[in-house]
Design a protein that fits this description.
Layout (H helix, E strand, L loop, with lengths): L1 H20 L2 E4 L5 E14 L11 E2 L10 E2 L3 E3 L2 E10 L2 E11 L9 E15 L2 E9 L24 E12 L2 E12 L5 E13 L3 E10 L8 E14 L4 E22 L9 E22 L4 E12 H10 L9 E14 L2 E10 L5 E8 L1
Antiparallel strand pairs: 1-2, 2-5, 2-6, 2-20, 3-4, 6-7, 7-8, 8-9, 9-10, 10-11, 11-12, 12-13, 13-14, 14-15, 15-16, 16-17, 17-18, 18-19, 19-20
Amino acid sequence: MLKKTALALAVSTLFVGAAAQAATIYDNNNGDTLKLYGEVGVGGHFGPNYEYGEFYQSPIADNEQGYGNELERSYIDDSFATLGVKGNYQEVYYRLELDYERENWVGGSGDMVLSIDKMFVGYNITENHAIEVGITDTAFDDYDKHGDLTFDSTVETGEAGDQANTIKYEGKIWNIKLGTSYSYQAESSSGAPLGDVVNGYIGYFGNIVSAVVGVEQRAGSNGESKYGEQQLVGFGMRVNVTDAITLGVNGYIEDEDKAQESTTVINNSSNINDDVKIYNDYQTLRNKGALVSASYKFTPKWELTGSYNYEEYEKWAIKNIEYDTTPYSWGDERTWSTVGVNFRPSSSVIFAIEGNFGEAAQDAYAYARVYF
């Protein structure tokens, strides 16, 4: 953490003068550029329901090791900031992006963490085809929520996201976009091994209709973590009914191997989180979810959004059978709705608030974000 923080502060100091004057740091007649960009966002989740297992819970220390019951807060901070530089020299392009975010998800630390989110070098093979290598998002990560028109993510597809040791290709032919990526020894958001990950997408992007299909497959951790093999298929579509009304559909089906047992081979008495375990008894579980969403721009600055969401995890049904009753208040599946309002005083600023109804993991979400 200390090394990442020091690096980020050094880069921030380096570019603070240029950022105050202009986004473009360097530009010449050959088309070579160097630009500064970023965003600052403040907001979070109101009335979180921890029963759904989506959010980090703060522990209440009650012994020497610092372990105790979990503290359920009524508000979870979701503040986020990005500072990055990007540029190109003829056919070569590059990016360095630093993120400062709250690890508020299950498996996260609960702290504000500063890390390198992207660090890659790319090459434009032609005007419409490129390849890049380094720390970057996997191919399907750009479009896995294509049909979700709400501000805060609703139904989660669970794809790999940003990964180190990644090589990615993206191209465009007419209105068809396609991409594929390979990540060596990928990790989850909490740092757990996933094994090698391959994913990709193909989509049509027209003026009225756009649709994307994506797939992902991971090799699994070979007993190093609870994550085994996985196959994922996702779909997203948007329809611009009018200039003001847009409709969206999003969905996924995932077959994921999860370890049901683990054996501790090295016990750390000072911190149970440092125990070394071997995971086994992997069972294939099917997860699936879908949503329909809509947005309506009633002025250039004001927009209404809404969605209806459905999610089903096989582990919920299995637990219900094992206990001969449901340990979950929502049973085998859950549904909920989201209604939101977005206000954009300028093209680079957005204020958003969303309310959730039904079997949702939170009551509301509010956020203010500025891009530069």
